[in-house]
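Quick illustration, no need to memorize.
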Amino acid sequence: MHAERIILETDTHGNIKNTPKLPPNRHVEAIFLVLDESEAPVEPRPRRRPHQDIAGRLKILGDVMSSAPDKEWNLPE
């Protein structure tokens, strides 16, 4: 026997979303612990993309890094 932690999410009716694949022809015991909102896993934010009207229209002319003093870039030293 081995333990495997899986965090499941339910819809507005309490049905499990995206049910996990389980091993075939086995008995599985499940204990459900309902997580508080503060303990629920945080989903990563979707990657931001430029608006389709301006995507691909940017042209870099010259050295971008020398456009401002090094102190203003807030780069780690």
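The beta strands are 9-10, 16-17.
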